[in-house]
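Troubleshooting: if your tokenizer reports a length mismatch, compare your output against this known-good record of 348 residues.
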Amino acid sequence: MTHVEDIFPKLIPKQCEICKSTTNLSRCGGCLAYFYCNRSHQLAGRQEHKDTCNTVKKARQTVQEEEQKLRQSQPNAFDTWLGSFWTVRETRPYMQAKMMLSETLIRTYHRQGIDDALANFLDMLRLSRSDNRGIRLIAGPLFLRVGQDQECYDFLKWWAIKSNDQNGYDWHDTSLPYLDIKDADVLEPIDVFLNDYAMVIPLVTLLLIKVRLLLEIQAVEKVREILQPHATPERIMKELDGLLLGNCLRRRVELVDNEEEHLNVLSAQIGSLLTAVGDANPHIIPMLLEPDLDELMGPPLPYTRGSKSEALLGLQYTYSAWCESAGAIQGLRNVIRTAIQDLRQSEQ
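Known-good structure output:
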């Protein structure tokens, strides 16, 4: 059976558009998102690339033009309004141009485009800390698309903590620490993410982090069985080089041990997250497993919390990350199938 994830566009790595070489690459001088290994290959790909190139190039130029206008009209704007840009009317054309640039880069489905889109979003958050446009919801899954699972977890955790801060975080005080959580324990309890106000998109993003790590530790288990008695953590990681979805295992090699314990923790957390996601929006998991391709590729729609439109927006932000995580969606299907079977057996 063919699923949507099998035919959905996947991320194109940094490689020559013509021969797929990964060496001696130069960026396209127009869009800065595509690569070629020589001039003749760039010319060969020009006709096919022209429309995308011009669209991205125009979006980049618009950002530069709006920044120049802002600096000319308000020379101290980037100092005076730092941290509060979206709340200041004069900055909005510039911020809207940056938003359009990131959205355009994401639609290239190219790794460099995603790298640049993420960097641009993080700069927008630096300029407007309170994020009243929901940039964090789009940025989170982009970390995963470029293999930065640990950074994604740290990012999600910081926002979860500050969103629940009862004392109130002064979003306009740029002297306060911002996005300063680094290398948090990705296996720690997930309570900080679970509350009555938890948003479905960060929950689905966190769920993917856990599923990716589960798949990786399952791979560690299989490699250990093959390598016995020479299965040192270093040897296992060498065998898995190039196969890992994210960077959590690379950053924490101590996880390459006690696999059964880690798998039990992850399985329990995935179960809790599935419940939390279902509570936040009952539509998104069924839609994730069997989405409508036309809806996925369509424009965002107005939504209310818990609605099908919100679920669709969540998928539009996260589905590429799920598709590019080999085995993640099928793994989620297996988890749900096993949970249903266990439930039925307990009822007999």
